[in-house]
Design goal:
475 residues, mainly alpha, two-stranded antiparallel sheet, 2 strands
Amino acid sequence: MLMDLTFVKRNRNFFLSLILFIGSILLAFLGAYFGLLVSVLFIGLAVGAALVIAILFNERYGIYLAYIVSFFIMGLHRFYDFNEIPIAMVIEIFVFVTILSIAINRKDLRNLKFDYNTVNVLILIWIAYHFLQILNPVAASRIAWFYAARNTFLIVIVYFVLSYMTKSERFVATMLKIWITMTLLAAIYCLKQEYFGLFSFENNWLFSNPDRVKLLVTWGKVRKFSFMEGPMVLGISLAYTSVLCFSLLTGPFAIRNKILLALAGAIMVWAMFFTGTRTATILLPVGLIFFAILTLNRKVLIAVGIFMILGTGLILAPTGNPNIFIMKTAFRGGEDASMNVRLTNQELIQPFLQSHPFGAGVGSTGGWGARFSPHTFIGSFPPDSEYLRIAIEFGWVGLLYYCLMLFFILKMGIDNYFKTKDLRIRTYYVGILTVTFMTVIAMYPQEALRIPPTGIFFSMCVAFLYKMEKLQKFK
């Protein structure tokens, strides 16, 4: 047996060529007789099997891949119509295999003790409240629960997995590099769409649905979506990550890295305006102001002040540029038609919220409500807000609890930031705290955690706010 293995190792190039030759013949056969989809599925299964094996040897590959895939998985439907195929489950598979890899390879799990800190306990209670909602007598559909609750469970599972895996500053830095790199690629692709146009398959997807055209074409301009799910997700992702880049400029990093961070942040802000996402336009100054207040650094305060003055001048100045005009509407308040529709909807739903303290059940509104209970008022209601969706599904009791949980997450992060003495980790805290605060704000006008990768952004931020303080090096 040993001789056989030695022979294989010595002739591994031959065997690799043989496998590729047989695979290419099989791929051509499948494509000729069963169509392109079968060939694509075959390639996907082969690549997927290789990745699963790699994850089983090193769990970090799993969380890296889950994070990378979350950026573009929801945009694949523009390339091919997957119909009812739940392609987002790829992220869940990577996370599951990561957990399996940890269980197989990590011997320290036997001695692992659960940290019953305030945030962890609040998260567990929130999950328990999800299960109690199965018994909600008002719920129009029990099946919707199993679909809608998955997103929350994924966010929570990723949080606990990352909390366990965060054992070094290097891991934190690697995750931030992946985050910034993937968002920068999305920004560059967004600029390609703006200045060189959409690909034919993107145009076909956009104009194949009149409702889609109404949503994505504003003032004669196509809202750019890059390779992500849509303009909203792209816009707020660019806002989050640009502020993250700018905040990291205050850290003890090499000049070369700071130049790259500044350039990446500027490109993201540039691309953000072509998404036509008003929420992102508001998040950018909000994040910078929070960052300035948190650090109280003189240079930061001056830089943010200059940015605010220039931004105010841009908003007040007359312009015929549709991108700038859309950006300006974000600050019009009551004059913005989109905001007025949302305020009207919020006023319309208030009697229901007041009379249902425990809500209408998980998955009763929004996309899942339209699918499983379209005949009901709540099922056809567009929440357009993470907080409003929680209020509808979990009641005002659930909303108050959710806000309490967010408060303690921010409090934990701020406390750990001021306890940390290591300058590099302290810089990471500033950026991640700022993004967490921006997410809390973004959940008012948008369902900011519903679509990847924003939910995983949030999981990572909370996990790092919890664990980074334990990585510091006291000097």
